[in-house]
Design a protein that fits this description.
The protein is of the alpha/beta class. 41% of the residues lie in helices and 16% in strands. Helix 2 packs parallel to helix 3 and helix 2 packs parallel to helix 10. It is globular. The protein starts with a helix and ends in a 6-residue tail after the last helix. The model has no long low-confidence stretch (mean pLDDT 96). The chain binds the ligand Cc1ncc(COP(=O)(O)OP(=O)(O)O)c(N)n1, the ligand Cc1nc(C(=O)O)sc1CCOP(=O)(O)O and magnesium ion. Belongs to the thiamine-phosphate synthase family. Condenses 4-methyl-5-(beta-hydroxyethyl)thiazole monophosphate (THZ-P) and 2-methyl-4-amino-5-hydroxymethyl pyrimidine pyrophosphate (HMP-PP) to form thiamine monophosphate (TMP). Keywords: Magnesium, Metal-binding, Thiamine biosynthesis, Transferase.
């Protein structure tokens, strides 16, 4: 499977995203439901460094057992400690070209991009894929800006062509996912619609069912 195909249903989660639930169980269910990639995003959480590494190891093990790419958000140090598949960084994080140097050629590098200029720069700096968002309003990331909508994906895709992997993120629910892939994204990245669903397994299934064979422009 090409990495691009792993972006179809990209689940992003940290312990802060599933209050009252065990993140390990949430991830297991999401995998049963069919997620294709996972990002460990421990952000403003209550865990200390050691607890973060311990949780990361548990989640990484489950991903390995199911052949799911395991991406670490923001932290190159944690990605290296966990021997992660890759790392995802945003525009306010370390520069993408420096991160590429640190992680080497074989790990996956994801970079957030809102505009065509940021998208071009990300790929020039060594990104394997970009995360474009927020697609819709979101309560999972208080510092996310105004929604850029699927139109931002459409614009980047039309200008850059089909070679570049793109995932939409932010406020995406199963019923809105087809708009995002219809605009040209390879897939959707999702926190709360899976982590806070009464059944993460059912939610993941619903995403895949509704996206069906929705194709890119
Ligand atoms: C797949 C994906 N896309 C975008 C983001 C957002 O990254 P960033 O802008 O650095 O914000 P934080 O996630 O660090 O709050 C992402 N994490 N994943
Ligand atoms: C982590 C993240 N990044 C965003 C961006 O726009 O770059 S929006 C976002 C939060 C996504 O969570 P939910 O699926 O619950 O809306
Ligand atoms: Mg970040």
């Amino acid at each position: 499977m090409r990495f691009k195909d792993s972006l179809r249903l990209y689940f992003v989660m940290g312990s802060q995203d599933c209050p009252g639930e065990n993140p390990v169980e949430v991830l297991k269910q999401a995998i049963q439901g069919g997620i294709t990639c996972f990002q460990f995003r421990e952000k403003n959480s209550r865990l200390n460094g050691r607890e973060t590494v311990e949780l990361g190891k548990e989640l990484q093990k489950i991903c390995r057992e199911h052949n799911i790419p395991f991406i670490v958000n923001d932290r190159v140090d944690l990605a290296l400690i966990l021997d992660a598949t890759g790392v995802h960084i945003g525009q306010e994080d370390l520069p993408a070209d420096e991160v590429r140097r640190l992680i080497g050629p074989d790990r996956i590098l994801g970079v957030s991009a809102e505009t065509l200029e940021e998208a071009r720069r990300a790929f020039a700096d060594g990104a394997d894929y970009i995360g474009v968002g927020p697609m819709f309003s979101t309560s999972s990331k208080p510092d996310a800006g105004e929604p850029v909508g699927p139109a931002a994906v459409r614009h980047i895709r039309q200008q850059m062509g089909h070679r570049y992997p793109i995932v939409g993120i932010g406020g995406i629910t199963p019923d809105r996912a087809p708009e995002v892939v219809g605009a040209g994204a390879d897939g959707v990245a999702v926190i709360s619609a899976i982590s806070k669903a009464s059944s993460p397994l059912g939610a993941a299934k619903q995403f895949l069912q509704l996206m069906g064979n929705s194709t890119k422009l």
